[in-house]
Amino acid sequence: MRIFAALRMAARALRRNKMRTLLTMLGMIFGVGAVIASVSLTSGAKSQLEAQAANLGQNVVLVWSGNFTSRGVRTGWGSAGTLTLGDADAIKTEISGVTIVSPEVRGSAQVAAGDQDWFTNIQGESADYFDLRLWPFAEGSAFSEQDVRTAGKVAVIGKTVATQLYGSDDPLGKVIRIKNVPFIVGGVLIPKGLSLQGQDQDDVVFIPYTSAMKRVLGGTTLRTINVQAASAQLLVPVQQQITDLLRQRHRITPGKDDDFTVRTQTEIADFVTSQATTMSYLLAGVAAVSLIVGGIGIMNIMLVSVTERTREIGIRMAVGARGRDILVQFLIEAVTISIIGGVIGIVLGVSAQPIIKFIANIFTHLGVPIGFLSQFASWPTLTPVIWVGIASLSSAVAGVISGFYPAWKASKLDPIDALRYE
After folding, report:
1. Are strands 60-65 and 224-229 parallel, antiparallel or unpaired?
2. Contact 67, 258 (CB under 8 A)
3. pLDDT digits over 36-77, tens only?
4. Which of 36, 91, 137, 145 is buried most, with the most CB atoms less than 10 Å from its CB?
């Protein structure tokens, strides 16, 4: 049988039962659409998380206080003040391959400017912190080493704080009161968005760590020490040297848990990527179940079609059609349904976010906001081309697999029995 003639016959057969054909396609449409939408969502989230990991800076090693076991309880990162300024100085002077060391003190406080106030994060850092984080300034500049040595009253603020306290006014040179201690705003940072933990990185006020310890937050210990290695190749050696140095300084004997945690930027990025990849495969696997359901639907309808067209099959065999012609005919019908459904599913999957956003906007305008729709509409999406190919191939394979048994059953019908069928 010529392939084009078979395609024309398949198209006529499918047009005879338009509604049934459409309903059969729905399983494949939703299956492929779900696969594409889930992969696009997780790929977009993965790319965003990788970008946020890159926001940490280049060749960064993070040292957190805490993470030791006491009476069977592990306290966790940053939960115990086990790092000191002496530790930071020792890392800077004794570890080879280190270019920047920034002691970090964190807290939160009420800040005010004029008649506006805002509760925000306070971070005490060194003057080199912004170079380490590769965080450019929208205007102004960082505080200086002199400000750090003298516990100067100079602050750098994030975009969120600038907007909340000063609105559209220029904050440079103006006073910001932190716990009623006046600081001069010396710079405003470029917005960075959310962190890996989902926090607004721009909702923060940076001051010299000495000012934070002496004037605002108090305390004599550090929460974090930010370290920059000279190159990516030195990350692991620097990490090991820091671990050895701090164990020696903290008098931690062999076999005892560290009272600090050292992680490289690469480890953090790899962890984030692995989590996103696992979620991607999980969602794709769940969505792939819809493909199986769609394939079962196609098989069911094709079996019904074989039963309905038994007499037609007998007539075709009586006038010379061979078993393989009948096999090809029904396979083409099954694959056509599957491929058309797959193409529509791909289009819907790629367009899922704009469609959801459109629906969310309609509900919002009607005064019935649906939170999860609005949240989904704001998530980043990225559709890898390879997954479009995988979805297309999957729909075609599903059509062949689901259509083969009905087609084989049709090709094995006895012409005499088929002609007698009513």
Report:
1. antiparallel
2. yes
3. 877 777 777 666 666 666 666 678 888 988 764 444 444 444
4. 36
Calpha distance 146→249 (Å, rounded): 28
Q: Three-state secondary structure along 122-191?
A: EEEECCCHHHHCCCCEEEECCCCHHHHHCCCCEEEECHHHHHHHHCCCCCCCCEEEECCEEEEEEEEECC
Overall average pLDDT of the 5-19 stretch? 73
CB-based contact 189:136 (threshold 8 Å) = yes
The CA distance from 129 to 103, in Å, is 9
Cα 202 from Cα 195, distance rounded (Å): 9
User: Rounded CA gap, 209 and 366, in Å?
Assistant: 50
Three-class secondary structure of residue 351 per DSSP: coil
200-244 pLDDT tens trace: 889 999 999 999 999 999 888 898 999 999 888 888 899 999 999
Rg (C-alpha) for the chain, rounded Å, is: 32
Cα 231–Cα 234–Cα 240 angle in degrees, nearest 5? 150
Exposure string of 83-116, with b = 16+ CB inside 10 Å and e = fewer, is: bbbebbebbbeebebbbbbbbbbbbebebbbeee
148 Cβ neighbours under 8 A, 6+ residues apart: 126, 127, 208, 209, 210
Q: Which residues contact 102 (CB under 8 A, 6 or more apart)?
A: 125, 126, 128, 129, 132, 209, 225, 226, 227
Q: Which residues make Cβ contacts (< 8 Å) with residue 320, sequence separation at least 6?
A: none
Query: For the chain, what is the total number of helices (H) and then of strands (E)?
Result: 15, 14
Sign, CA dihedral 345-350-351-354, equals: positive
pLDDT, tens digit, for every residue of 298-328?
787 777 777 777 777 777 777 777 777 777 7
Residue 148 corresponds to which tokens in the numbers above? 């750090």
Name 128's Cβ contacts closer than 8 Å, sequence gap at least 6: 100, 101, 102
The reported pTM is 0.61
Which two three-digit tokens encode residue 418?
């088929």
CA 289 vs. chain centroid, Å, equals: 23
